[in-house]
Amino acid sequence: MGVIDVIENYIPIFLDKEGKLLLRNTWDKSQRNKVELNAKTRYTLLSTLSKDKVNEVITMFIAKKIWSVIALSHDEFHENSHN
Question: Total structural domains in the chain?
């Protein structure tokens, strides 16, 4: 079982050339790898955050979005600590 099988609440959407939804069992290896990498990255990011910050980003399933929130919070903290 891979990471993708453990994550039940995140099912990304892939579309075929005609714009139709590709079901999870039809994903190719590349698509599965992308989903697994996102899941591992998301888990890593969440494991480093405080409980309050986790509560803020827990509904975000794309690691890049979580990273953006973390970066923004860091920048705001940095600006406030120098004022």
Answer: 1
